[in-house]
Automatic annotation (TrEMBL):
Name of this chain's protein: Channel protein TolC
UniProt organism field: Leptospira tipperaryensis
UniProt keyword list: Cell outer membrane, Coiled coil, Membrane, Transmembrane, Transmembrane beta strand
GO CC entries: cell outer membrane; efflux pump complex
Recorded GO MF terms: efflux transmembrane transporter activity; porin activity
Broad class of where this protein is predominantly found: membrane
Keyword Transmembrane annotated: yes
PANTHER family for this protein: OUTER MEMBRANE PROTEIN TOLC
Coiled coil stretches, renumbered: 255-282, 404-446
Location of this chain's protein in the cell: Cell outer membrane
Amino acid sequence: MDQKVQNSKQRILRTKNLGRILLGSFVLLQTFSLAAEETLRLSTEETVKRALESNYSLQNLRYELAKSDTNFLKNDSKYSWRLVADGKSSQSILPFNQANLLSGTKISDDTIKGGIEKTLQTTGTYFKVEAGTRRFDSNAFENASTTPAGFSSLGIPPLYTGFVRATISQDLLKNSFGYKGRNEVKILESQAEMAKNQVSQQISGVIVDSLVDFWDYSIKTQAVKTYKQLVENTKNIRNLTIRKQGLGLSESFEVNQWNALLAQAENQLETATVQKEEAKRKLVRSLKIPDGTSLSEETNLLEELTEKPDYPKDLEYAYKHRADFLNALKQKEIAESALKNANNDRLPTLTISGTGASQSQNIISPQENYTDTSQGIQSAKYKEWTGQMNFVYPLADKGIYAGVRDANISMRQATLKEEDLKNEVRDDVKTRIEALEASHRIYKNNIVTERETENYYNGVLRSFRQGRADAVSVKNALDTHVQDQLRLTQARVNFNIDLLRYYLAKNALLERFQVDRDKLIPDLN
C-alpha cells in the first residue's frame, strides 16, 4: 500500500514539472511573438534615412550622381600616359642586275620599338620617349659568282642599329600651349557640376515625395480615429434617443434618423480604413519596410516655426545654393569658354616638333648597342636630330563662321537665362515665405476652431440629454466637430509641407536633414 502511495506522489510530481515546462514554453513563445510584432515608429528623420537607403527613385538618382563626371573623366583620358609599341618587317628579293650590284638581291629590314607617350594637359605639349632596334641584312657581295674580284670583303653580316629617341610637339597658335584644351576641361568640369546640382535637386524633390507619403498615411490614420469617434458618438446619441423615446420625449422617426446616421458614419469609417491601408502599402513599398511590420500612428510633425524666415538672408542663400540658378551661372561660364574656343578656331595651326636620338650600330647582337658603354647608346656619341613645322590656315571656312555665330548666340541666351532665373528665384523665395507664414496662421486658427467646436458639441449634447436641444442641433454640431478635426490634421500637414517647400525654394533641404551630397554616391566596389 505504501508503495502505491509513493508511486502516485511521483506521478503527480512529474505531472507538475511537465506543466511548468509547458507553461514556460508558452510564455517564451508569447515573448517571441510580441517581439516579432514590434511597432516601427517612423519620424521625419527616419523616413528620410530609409528613403535614401531604400527608395527606388532615390537609389536610381544616386547612381546618376555617380555618373555625373563621366564625360570629364573620358576627356581626361586624352592626357593619360600611354604605353606604345610597334614592329615592322620587310623582305625584298630581286633578280641580279647592274642596278642591285651594290645593294644586293635579297634585303631584309626589321624594326621593333616601344615607349611611352603623353599629352600635357596644362600646355597641350605632346611628349614621347621610345627605344628600339633595327636589323638590316643584305646579300650584297656575299655570292662569289656575282661579286667582282676584290669586292668580297665588302660583304658583312646583319647590321643591328639600336636607338633611344625623344619627340616633342607643340601647337603655337590655334591651341597655343593647350589653350583650347584648358577651355574644354573647364566646360566639362562645369557640365559635371551642373549634373550634380540637377541630381541633388531631384533627390530633394523625391525626399519631399517620400515625406508627403508618410504624412498622407498620418492623415488617413487620423481620419480613421476621427470616424471611429464619430461612430461611437453617433451610437451613444442613438441609444440616448431610444431611451428618450421610451420616456415619450422623442419620436420613433428620430431613432430612424440616428440609425441612418450611424450607418452613414460606419460607411465613412470603412472608406477611411481602406484609404489608410492603401496609404500604408504605398509607404511600405516606397521605404521597403518588411512585410508584417506594424507602423506607429504617432508622428513628429512640427507645430511651430523653429526659425523665422528672413527674406533678404534667404534670398542670398538661394542665390548661392539653388541648383537651377547655379546651373544658369555654369551655363554662362560654358558659353564664355565655348566662345573663346570658337574665336580661336579662326587662327591657323602652327605646329613645331622635334626629335632627338642617341643611337649605335654593331654586327654582333641587338643587346650590344645597349650594353656597350664606350660605343653604344649610353655613350651618346652617335646622334640623330630631326625638326619639323606644319602650318594650316583655313580659307573662307563657313564652319568656323557658324561656330563663332552659335557661340555668340549661346552667350546671349545664357545671359537672358541668368536674368530670368534670378527673378524667378526671387519670386519663388518670396512666395514660399508667404505661403509658410500663412499656413502656420491657418494651422493655429484651426486649433482654436477645433477646440471651440468641441466645446460647442459637448454643450449641445448636454442640452440634448436634458431635453433642451433637438436632434438636428446635435447632428450639426457633431458634423462640424468632425470636419474641424479633419481640417486640423490637414492644416498641420500642410504647414509641414510648406516648410519643406520653403527649404526647397532656397535648396536647403539636404542641409536641413544633414545629408552630404558627395556621400550619396554609392560604393561601386
